[in-house]
Design a protein that fits this description.
about 450 residues, alpha+beta, Alpha-Beta Plaits, Glycerol uptake facilitator protein, GMP Synthetase, Chain A, domain 3, 3 domains, 4-stranded antiparallel β-sheet, 4-stranded mixed β-sheet, 14 helices, transmembrane
């Protein structure tokens, strides 16, 4: 429920009263004075999903919403027509009005000191989780990271025309990611120097770190979907805390990976995870912005972004926009190339496995390694993992696969094959068991 209060003058008093009566809204009207002028304050408890509709109707009768309009939350209300009004709007999806959206986004903002402090601590916890290969600890780091606030306030500032909110939120995002990387590097350096973690540790062999070597189609999808979910959740009446965990999940582990890679002197991992971090942040903002635009949110005036900006602010905004376009464009081209190559490789692997001579092997996983950790890198090695159910040594298919893939894609790659030999009992009365033997060509 919402408490809708509007202040009207004598000219629109009867029109507003007739409107509320026509719509079945129970209201209280009382005389009010502002700056020595008499007005009338209408107060009505209404369903949350009716706010947008009623404000539109009030516009039609000439109400100036900028004069005095208050929308508050209510736990409950009992009026003669409250059940009928709630039933009328029960099945409607009516996103928050623009003032409500701005208010909700503002409530999510925090002062820079507390925000950066929590980001620092979440990065430290993420480093612990990555080095221990513990998903539970990494999830804990996501829960306390308040990165969702600047992300959503930036997009709300963009679609509502609040330039100050937009620029402040972008600054907080950039500062937060810098603090996260620095904090992760600092803590990683402490555990590296003190010997709490072996200096000879192959950090790229840790699964939770290895999956963040570079951006890919899945990370692109996660970024866009997380931003879209955050924006959609913001426009509803529900909380956004769980959505904030999803956004942090796409960012904090990548920042921690960058810090770890810097300390362990893994430049390829550092560059790849940093690129993943930046790309994901851009795509989260882009996904949130596109959803809010699609839902009809627009600035009240055109030219708000650069209309009254100084030359320095104008240059900064244009430079940032150009940089974002270049990053997103590079990611798009690189992702499309990698997706096309991986699809062709999978096709060739499946085609080989369907031949009569290779009925004893089934592909389990295909992984492509590139010359470096950028999206425009050339494929270098393809590793194919097969399940083998035959007897004796598995067939030598690496050379044939290499020829097939190189011919189909035009890329000279090296193919490595791995086989897992499964042995199962043939008894129908006993549960199946398996003994795995891993061989590699």
């Amino acid at each position: 429920m919402r408490q809708l209060q509007v202040l009207v003058d004598d000219d629109t008093r009867e029109a507003v009263a007739d409107l509320f009566t026509e719509e079945g809204v129970d209201y209280v009207r009382q005389e009010a004075w502002t700056d020595g002028r008499r007005g009338w304050l209408f107060s009505a408890p209404v369903p949350s999903d009716s706010i947008g509709y009623l404000l539109g109707r009030l516009d039609e009768v000439g109400l100036d919403k900028d004069q005095y309009t208050v929308i508050g939350s209510l736990e409950s209300a009992v009026t003669p027509n409250d059940k009928a009004l709630q039933a009328r709007f029960a099945s409607d999806f009516d996103p928050l009005t623009q003032p409500e959206l701005r208010s909700k986004a503002t409530d999510m903002s925090s002062d820079p000191t507390s925000f950066l402090s929590m980001i620092f601590l979440s990065a430290v916890i993420a480093v612990v989780g990555l080095l221990m290969d513990s998903p539970a600890i990494i999830v804990g780091s996501m829960v306390i990271a308040p990165i969702v606030g600047p992300v959503l306030t930036a997009t709300v500032g963009a679609v509502t025309g609040d330039r100050r909110m937009l620029l402040d939120s972008i600054w907080l995002q950039a500062s937060g990611l810098a603090v996260a990387v620095a904090g992760a590097a600092l803590f990683s350096g402490i555990v590296y120097v003190t010997g709490f973690v072996p200096q000879q540790l192959a950090v790229t062999a840790i699964e939770l770190i290895g999956v963040r070597l570079s951006p890919g189609v899945l990370s692109v999808t996660v970024g866009l979907a997380a931003g879209a979910a955050g924006a959609f959740g913001l426009t509803t009446k529900g909380p956004t805390s769980l959505i904030g965990v999803m956004i942090a999940a796409a960012l904090i582990p990548a920042a921690a990976t960058t810090g770890i890679a810097i300390v362990w002197r893994e430049p390829r991992l550092a560059v790849g995870s940093l690129l993943l971090l930046v790309v994901t942040m851009v795509l989260i903002n882009l996904g949130a912005f596109l959803v809010l635009v699609a839902m009809g949110y627009r600035p009240d005036e055109s030219g708000w972004l650069l209309g009254s900006a100084s030359r320095r602010e104008t240059v900064a905004v244009i430079a940032t926009a150009v940089a974002l376009v270049l990053v997103v464009g590079t990611v798009g081209v690189g992702t499309a190339q990698q997706v096309g190559f991986d699809r062709q490789v999978t096709t060739e692997v499946n085609s080989l496995a369907q031949q009569p001579d290779y009925r004893s092997i089934d592909p389990i996983a295909v992984r492509t390694e590139y010359s470096d950790d950028t999206l425009l890198a050339q494929p270098e090695t393809v590793t194919v993992h097969f399940a083998y159910t035959g007897s004796g040594d598995p067939p030598a298919v690496a050379a044939e696969l290499e020829d097939r893939i190189s011919t189909a894609t035009g890329e000279p790659v090296t193919v490595r094959t791995r086989f897992t030999d499964y042995n199962r009992t043939s008894s129908l009365t006993q549960p199946n068991t398996s003994v795995q033997r891993l061989t590699e060509q």
